[in-house]
Each structure stands twice: as C-alpha cells, then as structure tokens.
Write a structure and sequence with these properties.
The chain is built from 7 helices and 15 strands. The chain is of the alpha/beta class. It folds into 2 domains: about 120 residues, Response regulator (Rossmann fold); about 100 residues, OB fold (Dihydrolipoamide Acetyltransferase, E2P), CATH 2.40.50. The strands form 4 sheets. It has a 5-stranded parallel sheet with strand order 2-1-3-4-5, sandwiched between helices. The radius of gyration is 19 Å and the shape is globular.
Length: about 230
C-alpha cells in the first residue's frame, strides 16, 4: 500500500510516518510512506493508494490538493485530512469534495490505526488480477464504477472508459469486496461509493450514467454501506 503524506510541518509527517511503519510492522502489512511539504510536488507524482493531507497549508491547502487529485484520477482516490480546525468538515462539504476521513493533529495513534484498518480494506484487499489473452491485468475495485454483463463477456466501466473481459458476471462478483458492490439488476453490478442518486426504478452514478434498478432491498444495502464504510 503506497501512502502519501502532505504537510508543511516536518514533525507532523515524521510522526505520522513512524506510526504507520509501526502499524504495518505489527500486522505484517506492506506499506510505504512518502512525505511531501508542497502540494504541487505531490501532484507531479503518480497515484497513491491513500493520501493524508494537511487541511491548512501554504501555498496550496489540502482542499485544493484534494480537488486536483480527484479531477486527475476521476474521484478514485482515498483522502484523509489532517487538521485541528473545527470547521474543516463543513468547508470540505461546502467545497464539494468528499472526505474519506479526518484526523485531528497531533495525530492520536488509536484513531490513526482505526482509519488505517478502514483504508486498508478499501485498497489492498480490493485489487485483483484478470486475464486478457495471455496477459494478466491488475484491476482496482476502487476505480471500478460498475460491471455490465455483455453476452459472454463482462464490461468493466471506470472513469477512463470500459474494458471487456472473458469472465461471467458471477466470476467478477466473487472477486469484488462484499458490501462495496451491489447487484442492482441481473446485468449490472455497481460500486456503491459512486452512487449519486436513486429512486424506485433507477440508480444514477457519479459518471452521469443511469442504470435500471430491479433489486427491492437496494435502499437497505446502500444505507448499510454508508454506515459501515463511511464511519
């Protein structure tokens, strides 16, 4: 799991790095941290599995960095803000940027570990390999908006487009993390974190597509997801 830390106070990133290394060592997890003091430098890098961003930082604050990351990676990023500013959550919501978590500075070890448990489920356990011809391709569940049955293939839709794989929908469903994906129709399996709105007959996703809704217990499943994954 690759983790980016961005804070203009070196003692904060040093403390956070040490806590994450200890957490990974105790659980035998593979985690690498890279620290940045400037958001611009962070944005020049490739994608990380998890971002810890200082909310109040110059010249580019955490909210601006998050907006740039979500635009760059079509919202398929996991972000936790570091802050001691009580109004941070309201500003994030008003700014239209979803937050996957907040940690108050100085970071409490128990609270950090609770968040890492949550984020680890969403990243490392949510990647798998699919065969395409003679090659295997890594697929990240977090990047997947929905899966669509298409004759003897399955189309996997991401914000970058759709790719076809010679698998059944049942095969794909077994690979995806329980509780994060839901079968709204026999031909459609959606990522619940990308639900934008829904009614009795359809679900609209964050990429603007609307899919038919046939499952009667969708509302219950979606509310369970919101409770379990957005704590």
């Amino acid at each position: 799991m690759r983790i980016a830390l961005c804070d203009d106070e070196k003692q904060v990133t040093d403390q956070l790095s040490a806590l994450i290394r200890q957490y990974a060592f105790e659980r035998n997890y593979d985690m690498q941290c890279e620290a940045f003091s400037d958001g611009g430098k962070l944005l020049e890098q490739g994608k990380y599995d998890l971002y810890f961003l200082d909310f109040c930082m110059d010249p580019m604050n955490g909210l601006a960095i998050a907006k740039a990351l979500k635009e760059k990676y079509s919202y398929a990023v996991t972000i936790c803000y570091l802050t001691n500013y009580d109004a941070a959550a309201a500003l994030v919501i008003n700014g239209g940027v979803h937050a996957d978590g907040f940690l108050r500075k100085p970071v409490d070890r128990a609270q950090l570990e609770e968040k890492l448990d949550q984020f680890y489920r969403l990243s490392v356990f949510n990647r798998f390999e699919l065969r395409r011809g003679k090659r295997y391709q890594t697929v990240y569940a977090q990047d997947l908006i929905y899966a669509e049955a298409d004759d003897k293939q399955v189309l996997l839709h991401t914000f970058a487009g759709a790719d076809a794989y010679n698998y059944s929908m049942r095969d794909i469903e077994k690979l995806l993390p329980a509780g994060l994906f839901y079968r709204v129709h026999r031909s459609y399996l959606i990522n619940l974190q990308y639900v934008d709105s829904y009614d009795a007959k359809s679900v609209t996703l964050k990429n603007g597509e609307t899919l038919p809704l046939k499952a009667k217990d969708f509302q219950k499943a979606y509310r369970n997801f919101m409770f379990l994954w957005n704590r």
